[in-house]
Every structure is written in C-alpha cells, then in structure tokens.
C-alpha cells in the first residue's frame, strides 16, 4: 500500500500539465480553483488507499494521474454550470415552492431586465432632483388594487409578520387562536416568529374551536393586538368553529386601543371563487371589512416575485416604515420592478388571465389541458414502439401552501419507455437541458400539462424524441 501511495502524483506536477492550462484558459476559471479540485482528488485517493480501497484497476502513477484528471475535468465543468436554471414543470402544481412558485408575466420580466441593466430612480425623486424613498415606488399601486390607506413591501410574508409584531406589539400581548398557530415551509412557525419579535403570545380557544368570547375574555391592559392567521396551507373539517373577520373588527371597535391584524398568507387580488375555485378571500374585501393591517405574499396567488406586502391604516404603516427593521427587511430594485408590472396587470383593461401566468394556469380548463396532452401523444406517435403513452383524467393542486384541499380537474399523460426504467427516465429528464420535472406513480412517468406552456411544448417533445435511441 505504501508503494501505491508513492505513486500518487504531486500537485505541482499536475499544474505543469497542458490539461491544467487548457482548463484554466478555455473555461476562464481561476488556476487556484483548478488546483483546489486537484488537491481534493489526490486527498480522496490517499484516504481510499489508506483505508485499503483501490478505486481504479491496475493502479500506477499513470492510471492515478488519468483518474485525477478525469474527475477534475468533470468537477470543473460542473463548477462552471449555472446553479439556478430553467425548469419545465410537469407536475401540475402551479405554485411549486421547490420550483420557484409564481412565474412572472412577460411584462414583468421585461421591466426587471430594464431596471437591472440600467441605473434607476430607486431612491431618487426625479421631479425634484433629490433623494426619495423606495417605499413610495409601489404604495400608490398597492393602495389602488387593495383599497387600503397605505402600503409597504418587505422581502417575504414571514418578514412582514415579524415586522408588524416587533414594531407594534413588542413586550405586549397579541391574542391569536390556537387553531391558527400554523407552521409554514421549512418548519417556521407563527408562534416562533412571535417569540422572536418579543410579542407575548396569548393563545385562545382550542385547536378546532374558537369563539368570540375567547377573544373578549383574553383582552387586558397589556393587549396590543388581535392577530388572525388565515390557514391557507391546511384545512380543518368536522367539529370546528372560527370567528369571522367582521366579528373581530367589531370587537376591535369596542376596544379602540387594539390593532386588528390579519395575516392572509397567500393573498389574492383575483377572486378565484367566481371561477368555482377555493374559498380564498380577496385582499380588498378584507380591507373593506375594517381590518387595520393585512399582510400577504407576492409570489403566491398574486403571481409576482417573492415579497411580503403589508397594507392597511396609514398610521400603522408609517410606524412600520420608520422602524429600524424596515431597512433590514427591504427589497431590491428587481423585486420592485417585477412587482410593479404584476400590480399593473390588475389595473389594466387587458385580459388579466392572458397577462399573469399564475392566474392563467389555475383557471386553465381541463379541455385546454386535454388538447395539449393529446397533441403531445400525437407528436410522439411514430415512437410508439418505444413509448407507451396514455391520456388520463386527473387532478392538479395549486401548491405553495395555498388552497388546501382544492383539486383542479386536469389531464395527464402516463409514460413508460420500453428500454429505460421509470426512475432512470425521470432522472434523465430531470438532468437534461432543459430540466424536466415530472411525477412518478405506479411505475409510470406522469406529466400534467396544466403547468406546461405552449411555448415549452416543442422542447418537451424534443426531449422525448432524443431519448428514442437510448437503451437501459
């Protein structure tokens, strides 16, 4: 074994190789990065040899060198690849958290590119030639689409909740129903966020039932706020009862020192209830009911970039804007650009469904989806000896912790390849260019065309055609 260890080439010897120079020059990668990868490969080989493992056949200095170079070149190429890439979403989940949630509209994308590639008036009043505030950029649009007195934007809705509690209820009591102490993605809990904000949580009611008198009995001199959390990522059924927003507004009016804050989570500006989809409240309706503050996400049902949007009474919004955390939680120019065009879509006379991909995909009819699924099968008909394709009725979900229990009628295509196993086919599609993410059920690849656009269809079809000659 000691002889094999002596056969390992030193780093400086590999640095003199033409392959080293080629990697550095052709891929425009720092020589220090290539050296780091080479050193890691040599260290790995040394550890394997010391453990009694020989990862290559007929080991000698030549084969060790080739092994190191092959692995180094592979890792350098991987290092140069983009980490954030485009994905074709074949899962049917519209707001797929793992795949980036809402897709931006074409108008929003164009505006983001324009703002990102140039200087902008992010904090500059052009009309007056002096410094401005980024809070002013979208406030007018947000108040217009929601009916609120004032508005501001932070980097996500969890940040919005934290800012509201910290700025307006620090060291004071906040009353919330036990049934609304939700956990959101990544094991973040509303109760934990409240604790971090130094607001004192006062739980009322039970998991399944909370009555108005539970809130009434909990109000004390220390109470600063009533918090209602919209349970947008789960649904409780059976022996349940919650207190309506309107009842809590009336309770707040009788206790004028209180702030009534409702965290909507998903936050919709489009009334999907008119399409027979879910029971999600519309932000404007909640504001009109008399709630003091409302917060919601930008990248869920709204259909924009990640952001936390806070709308409501001007006196409270102004306090939030002036709080030190407002700077910590602020968003950048690209978020403002994407959100601006998204909001303008709601104020446009043009068809909102055609402008916003999220709204379009959620209300996409099963007939439209069937036509896409059928077209996919027709295009691959000549490869029927390799692919077994079947169009079936199924259901999609909205996703993103939104509209729990809502099933959207859809059509899927189930796929089997004669020579490639289902897990391997899923892997090949997932690691291809473009990456195609699918579902697997009953040993079949499933593609739900609700989340596949017409523009993506040629690429999707070509990806399957390119696999026609592959064997297992």
TrEMBL record:
It catalyses: L-seryl-tRNA(Sec) + selenophosphate + H(+) = L-selenocysteinyl-tRNA(Sec) + phosphate. Its cofactor is pyridoxal 5'-phosphate. GO terms for cellular component: cytoplasm. Keywords: Cytoplasm, Protein biosynthesis, Pyridoxal phosphate, Selenium, Transferase. GO terms for molecular function: L-seryl-tRNA(Sec) selenium transferase activity. Its EC number is 2.9.1.1. The keyword Ribonucleoprotein does not apply. GO terms for biological process: conversion of seryl-tRNAsec to selenocys-tRNAsec; selenocysteine incorporation. Pfam families: SelA. The modification N6-(pyridoxal phosphate)lysine is found at residue 300. Pathway: Aminoacyl-tRNA biosynthesis; selenocysteinyl-tRNA(Sec) biosynthesis; selenocysteinyl-tRNA(Sec) from L-seryl-tRNA(Sec) (bacterial route): step 1/1. The keyword Cytoplasm applies. InterPro entries: PyrdxlP-dep_Trfase (IPR015424), PyrdxlP-dep_Trfase_major (IPR015421), SelA-like (IPR018319), SelA_trans (IPR004534). It is found in: Cytoplasm. Belongs to the SelA family. Converts seryl-tRNA(Sec) to selenocysteinyl-tRNA(Sec) required for selenoprotein biosynthesis. This is L-seryl-tRNA(Sec) selenium transferase. It comes from Aquibacillus halophilus.
């Amino acid at each position: 074994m000691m002889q094999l260890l002596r056969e390992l080439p030193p780093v400086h010897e590999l640095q003199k190789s033409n392959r080293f120079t080629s990697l550095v020059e052709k891929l425009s990668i720092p020589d220090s990065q290539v050296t780091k990868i080479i050193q890691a490969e040599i260290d790995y080989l040394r550890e394997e040899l010391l453990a009694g493992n020989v990862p290559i056949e007929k080991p000698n200095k030549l084969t060790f060198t080739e092994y190191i170079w092959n692995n180094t070149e592979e890792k350098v190429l991987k290092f140069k690849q983009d980490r954030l890439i485009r994905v074709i979403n074949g899962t049917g989940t519209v707001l797929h958290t793992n795949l980036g949630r809402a897709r931006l509209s074409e108008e929003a994308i164009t505006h983001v590119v324009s703002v990102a590639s140039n200087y902008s008036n992010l904090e500059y009043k052009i009309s007056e030639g002096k410094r401005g505030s980024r809070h002013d950029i979208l406030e007018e649009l947000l108040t217009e689409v929601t009916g609120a007195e004032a508005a501001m934007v932070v980097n996500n809705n969890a940040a919005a909740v934290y800012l509201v509690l910290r700025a307006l209820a620090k060291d004071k009591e906040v009353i919330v129903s036990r049934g609304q102490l939700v956990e959101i993605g990544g094991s973040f809990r509303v109760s934990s966020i409240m604790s971090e904000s130094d607001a004192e949580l006062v739980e009322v009611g039970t998991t399944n039932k909370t009555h108005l008198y539970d809130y009434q009995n909990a109000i004390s001199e220390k109470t600063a706020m009533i918090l209602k959390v919209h349970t947008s990522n789960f649904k409780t059924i059976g022996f349940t009862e919650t207190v309506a927003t309107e009842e809590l507004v009336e309770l707040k009016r009788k206790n004028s020192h209180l702030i009534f804050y409702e965290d909507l989570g998903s936050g919709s500006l489009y009334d999907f209830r008119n399409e027979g989809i879910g029971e999600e409240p519309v932000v404007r309706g909640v504001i009109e009911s008399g709630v003091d503050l409302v917060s919601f996400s930008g990248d869920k049902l709204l259909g924009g970039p990640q952001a936390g949007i806070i709308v409501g009474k001007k006196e409270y919004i102004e306090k939030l804007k002036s709080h030190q955390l407002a700077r910590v939680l602020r968003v950048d120019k690209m978020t403002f650009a994407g959100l601006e065009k998204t909001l303008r879509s709601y104020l446009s006379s043009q068809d909102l469904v055609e402008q916003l991909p999220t709204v379009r995909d959620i209300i996409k009819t099963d007939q439209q989806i069937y036509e896409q699924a059928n077209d996919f099968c027709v295009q691959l008909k000549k490869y029927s000896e390799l692919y077994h394709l079947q169009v079936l009725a199924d259901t999609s979900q909205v996703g993103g912790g939104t509209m729990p229990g809502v099933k959207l009628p859809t059509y899927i295509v189930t796929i089997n390849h004669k020579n490639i196993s289902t897990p391997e086919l899923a892997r090949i599609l997932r690691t291809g260019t473009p990456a195609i993410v699918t579902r697997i059920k009953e040993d079949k690849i499933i593609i739900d065309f609700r989340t596949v656009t017409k523009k993506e269809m040629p690429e999707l079809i070509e990806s399957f055609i390119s696999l026609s000659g592959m064997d297992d």
